[in-house]
Amino acid sequence: MSHKTLTIALAGNPNSGKTTIFNNITGTRQKVGNWPGVTVEKKVGTVNKFGYELKIIDLPGTYSLTPFSIEEIIARNYVLDEKPDVVIDIIDASNLERSLYLATQLREIDCNVLFALNMADLARTRGMKIDGQKLSELLDVPVVFTVGNKNEGIDALLKQTVELAESEVKRPKRRNVKYSKDIEESIIRLKQFIDEKTDGDLPYNTRWTAIKLIEDDKIVKDRVVQKTGDVAQQILQVAQTLRKHLTDRFDDDPQIVMTDERYGFIAGIIKEVQTASTKQRIDISRNIDLVLTNRFIGFPIFIFFIWAMFQLTFTLGDYPVQWIDIGVGRLSASFDRILPDNLFKDLLVNGIIAGVGSVIVFLPNILILFFCIALFEDTGYLARSAFLMDKIMHLIGLHGKSFIPMLMGFGCNVPAIMAARTLESEKDRILTILITPFMSCSAKLPVYIILAGAFFGAKAGTVIFAMYVAGIVVSIITGRLFRSTLLKGADAPFVMELPPYRVPMLKSLLIHMWDRSKIFLKRMSKVILIGSIVVWALSAFPRNVQFSKDYSAETYNVITYYEAEKKSAAEPERIELDKKQQAAVDELLRAKQAEKTEKSVIGRIGKIVAPLFEPIGIDWRGGVSLLTGFVAKEIVISTLGVLHAVQIDDESEALKNAFLAAGMTKISALAMMVFVLLYLPCLATTAAIRRETGSYRWMFLSIGYSTAIAWIMAFFVYQGGRLLGYN
Amino acid sequence: MRLSEMKEGQSATVVRVGGNGILRRRILEMGILKGAEVYVEKYAPLKDPLELIVKGYHVTLRVEEAAQIIVDNVK
After folding, report:
1. Is the residue at A89 inside a domain?
2. What is the value of pTM for the model shown?
3. Is the ipTM of this complex over 0.90?
């Protein structure tokens, strides 16, 4: 049996419990994607009810439908263009007055709207009584009471929704906001003019169009031009004249006066439907804030929470990370055993499994981090953390909410960049994403440890700490630079609601966590797969390297030599000789590997670009390792090991000697560390930047900018150091 | 008096909201408009931003934004 499909959009203020209701209706049958062209999450779910297939769309939470923020534009365009069968406006009953602002705007658009008065239980405990019947009569809109987090009233809501969608009778002229005389006259005049001129060409309610034109709404103006062609100029002309008349009359912009009057209209409704409004909330939430945003202990507690989140993500998460690491290792080892030595095996084991494996290992970190962030978000603490941190972040030209993504960057940039989703303003989000990679991630630490350990001995700790500080300084400078150039313009207003604290629902947290992690898995793995294959191919080809000496023959000679020695030796010496033989064979093997890498495509590229690295004190081996570091930063060290033909272990004494033999100095080691700190983000991070900014432009900017900065800084360190006489 | 000059625990009535287009309209849309009662709940530990109670809910503004709001009847 085929069901009839109804499209239902959920609209509402942020924190109105919209997402909880959406989760309750659709459960796990939801698809999360992005709205076209932007990185605002779009959630769609379907459910079969009363013989209908209900397609539910969760619109972004907004306070208004003015076209200022991307969320508002999305929500409004959806209602205008997709014409859903019903729009459910989820209203936080304990915040009725402010919620009705969005509600009156939805009514003006003239869509099939229904109010869900959510969390009425909470309103009641705060001494508020709402007469739903009366509200329904006054605005001529069906009203249903719901308690989202207890799943109450959801069935009734859906039932009403279906009834509303199916009501054949065109509803009588609904009650709308009535503006003051002058504005009302202007609206009517413009509406009549539009009606006459367009003859129904305009697919929107003409009263609404008139209102928006008087409000000087740019998007609506463009649309009128688009849809009506020639007469558009006449319409805009009339609107302009009326606007001017009203501006003179009120000595203020008409849109400001109209905002005022909408609230006036709402105040009238509130008087009739709401009794015993409490002015201040003397409730648990306020008491919690006495502690959590306290002048003295607010920050210590915040730091504790962040520390706990960090620990959970990277310390607790480290156990499953290791299991996955071991699992990936075993998988690659077993393929190594099963398959015959050929190109395909090399691709599978060293290309695909190694590359994808290096990303999959992040999954536990990402799951835990997103769980923590969902917890912060759903309890209402995230808004408080922005409240605490805004002053500091604002100095860099950022929003208080940028702090958490930047901090997470010290762990891993991939989840950090994804955490920037919590920022509403696109400019803030892009800026945060661009400067997060300068937070020195944990994968860079092994590189510092080896280099600083080899060259700075007892001072290694200080040098490493200086790296972290340098990263922060560069991010601050970058933030200010971009804020005053590429991402110029007034900051988005900070005006932010501090919602009451709520006990989070586990189901919501898990859905939230999984939705975001799924995006990571799906999108990242594609890019990573391609990227790792490319890097593998560069280091695996050409297959037939002309070696400078015959390694097999030399190995054979070594073995024959020691076998002969062992025959004539006594028992204790034989063990000693065994060891020596193994070491000699290993050395030949490493030399062969080093030569193979040197003569591979990537090795040749490294030699070609070597002049670029020369001014910053990095030889071609360093250059090649930095190139391979694009896959993952920790690879820099293993490539260095391969190229210097030494075994890397915890002691790294051999590598240090090799560095010294290759002519590296303290100052060139420092330059290399600076370069590693700042140069282009790893493949996974690059993919995340592309994904989260929604454009290749920002990705390439990030790559180009960071690499340029890295080179310049390393140049100053190396050349400056040499000038000062350090060597 | 400017809203940004109010102390913690004081309440007042909004007289006028100034500022540029987007900021001004956003403040108005959040219910901070002429005649509205505002109560300064607290300032953040670093004295910026500040937390207000208006129309029964809590909202936070930067001090520079609050400086655009003129209030009267401070108690």
Report:
1. yes
2. 0.82
3. yes
